[in-house]
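Worked Example 4.2. Consider the chain below.
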Amino acid sequence: MRNIWIIKPGNKCRGRGIQLVKSIADVDKIMGLKMKYVVQKYIEKPLVIYQTKFDIRQWFMVTNVQPLTIWMYRDSYLRFSSQLFSLENFHESLHLTNHAVQCKYTNGQQRDKALPDDNMWDCHTFKAYLKQIGCMDKWNKVIYPGMKQNIICAMLASQDTMDRRPNTYEIYGADFVLGEDFTPWLLEINCSPDMSFSTSVTSRLCPQCMEDVIKVVIDKKRDSSSDTGLFDMIYKQNCPKTPPYLGMNLSVRGRKLFRNKLKSSKPEGKDQSSRNANLNMAKVHKPSNLYRTDVLSDTTVSKILPKILSSDMYKGPVIEDLMEEIHKSIHENDSGIRFAQPVVPTNDKTPNSDGPKKKSSATAGRADRKTKRKRKNKN
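Applying the procedure from the previous section yields the following structure tokens:
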């Protein structure tokens, strides 16, 4: 077995620009930088009829993309080469079996006389040949099911790139080559295949296929029990049914989280008024890298500096390590943060906005009566 590859230009048709190379290393020598190619491994051991290579053109139709619905035509036809098959010669007349290429050449003199002059058989003639060689069951058990499976898998693979317009359809032509064991190998799928009356075989099959297309696209849509001709539905995709609407709003809306400031429910008394007065007297200066406060008050310091929470309130090694680093950075002397010494007032007594409190007359009277009682007891 050799390592032969076939190269097809991606934007050409009718066999133009197709070449065969002896190894994969020769592919880079042929491929250009500005053109797309299809590179395939060549079927080196194909099934031949009277030493002549052939392929099978199989029609199928897609009537819906979502869900994917595929119809396959029962009849197909074979296209023969005009020359005997050989791997020693890479000429297109030996290896490219499409009619656009073979019509340029005359049939070889060494070809068997049983082969048609126009190089085409329909599938019924091919079945008769299989019966003649004792392989009648290969068509129903291997060839036709294999072509069907190849078409379904190829359409599923390309479903996402297909046009999903409603009320449309497309007919395709799939080309297959059979191996020595009758296994079908998919070569390519052509959209808008040639339906011209080029030979006696296509002159009979193409009009019949077009009539059956109308039966599927129009008649079947109007009446589900109408005849579809030779088209059989080979695949219809099962799409999941949409569940009924339950009236529940399952949408998710993102919102910002705000932390409300705690408000004291106690009424402001004298202590609260004195604290407010101390806070008003506090002046915080921000030089280049120091924070300075002018009042020494626990309440003031506790409000200026953030409250350090214990690491026990959190779980997880990452949070615990972070809280330990914060504790060290604040309590150690060389943490990098310097607090200025508070300025202590020079007066011994801190002036009070309310002034010195005076004793009431009732309190003074009680004190005088207690003093008189003590004197009487001594006497």
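The first strand starts at residue 5 and ends at 9. Residues 311 and 320 are 6 Å apart (CA to CA). Compare this with Example 4.1 before moving on.
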